[in-house]
Fold this sequence. Notes:
The protein is of the alpha+beta class. It has three domains: 3-218, Rhodopsin 7-helix transmembrane proteins (Rhopdopsin 7-helix transmembrane proteins, Up-down Bundle); 228-294, no CATH class; 329-460, Beta-Lactamase. 70% of the residues lie in helices and 9% in strands. It contains 16 helices and eight strands. It has helices at 3-24, 30-53, 58-87, 93-109, 134-158, 162-186, 198-214, 221-254, 261-291, 295-308, 314-329, 367-374, 383-386, 395-404, 435-512, 516-529; strands at 116-122, 125-130, 334-339, 345-352, 362-363, 379-380, 406-414, 417-425. The strands form two sheets. A six-stranded antiparallel beta sheet has the order 5-4-3-8-7-6. It has a two-stranded antiparallel sheet with strand order 1-2. The termini are far apart.
Amino acid sequence: MSLYLFxxxxxxxxxxxxxxxxxLHRPRTPARSAFAHLLIFGALWDFAxxxxxxxxxxxxxxxxxxxxxxxxSFTSVSLYRFALFYARAKPTKAYSVxxxxxxxLVMALVPGNLIVAGMQLKPYGYAPIPGPLFxxxxxxxxxxxxxxxxxxxxxxxxxxxxxxxxxxxxxIIGLSCSLLGGVADVLPLAGLPLYPGSIIGNIIFALITxxxxxxxxxxxxxxxxxxxxxxxxxxxxxxxxxxxxLLLVHFALTQTWRPPLWLSVAFIMLIAIGLQPVLHRVQxxxxxxxxxxxxxxxQALERLGEETRGVPNLGFIASSLLNTVTGAMRCQKACLLxxxxxxxxxxxxxxxxxxxxxxxxxxxxxxxxxxxxxxEGYLTRxxxxxxxxxxxxxxxxxxxxxxxxAELFLPLKTREGLRGVLILGRKLSGQDYSxxxxxMLRVATRQVAASLDNxxxxxxxxxxxxxxxxxxxxxxxxxxxxxxxxxxxxxxxxFNNVLASILGRTELALEKVxxxxxxxxxxxxxxxxx
Length: 530
């Protein structure tokens, strides 16, 4: 069986299997049910395409082609219903009436030759001969697709939840592939040498959308695009080198476009090995293009741990962390809490765009700090309302976090336990922090935690040294005062001895002297010595 016949069968079987998977998955929502119906109608359309391609003659191919037109009209309605349920949108009455009447109009027009006038043979197989209304019906199909695409773009723009935006991005990409595949089906009718691509586009749409609906955690679409872009560029470079090899072999060696097998294998291995360093450089260029002004900040965030290692200044490390994080994440507010001198509270050491620092002090026994100490993970603002243990947060703590508009809580941990908490506010874009951004932040906080802890211990050691020197100076001063007191006591004792001798001699002289004038002088001396 050729690929031309095999692809519709694969698409049909895949649609049926995915529809059953969707229907069996819990919880069953209106959007999932609508998508399952879409897959079933899509599988019926794929089967009709297989019947057309496998037909023995043009007459049978025409019958299957008309059946495919009816199936694709119902598929369009199912796609529209799926978009309405997923986006929870209020349908436009005019759009809805026209779209729901569309299959009826197609069924009424298909038996004649207004849409498809007949079939013809193309290099790849059967193709329809357009009727007078073929272009109008084809444009109606694409109009429904564009309306649905608009709904999903609106969902992506309106959502502040990163998982929901990521999920909508996957569906948008899948739907775009399906629409582009449909264009590749129509253009060959105008004489362009293209292979019909609607089946391939539908397979991509079914797989990507099913993945987006069922998987809770999807690979960030930006990561997928960045990685795919880098690999595509490197693959193109490898293909260019291989074409160069073919040219060299053709013109310089064998005059044939088929080089020996051993030469092809050797050259492909050489290309694969040689392009490994190039892949890293290309990935850096792609990242710089994707992130643009944030790229330097993100690179600095990855290097932050190494640059702050061994830095003794606690304030410098904290400021570097906040400046780099706020620049890379584009967040409005940020604060770094570290234990105070008593060890009973976590108080702000550094902050970004915050006025009331004192209001954010948290006790070590706070429910938030206790959870971060006991669990290996991070918290979001929504977790404060969901996790039972965090319902013990006090009214004062919640008000402080609300004033800061705190959105993300990242623990700074070492082997000894929790050493601080990095609190980030809302992003300027209003979006949630993506899983990739959280991963980068967690790596940075783990690296910086050790540097902060070392700097804090060094600061405590320096403070202890200062207090020790002050105590030593006080002890030396006290010793000096004690020695001075002893000297004063000795001088006073010796002086008292002299005075006692003077006093005794004066009293003896007063008893023996009779002259009044001399006696008065001795009395003055006696009185002064007392």
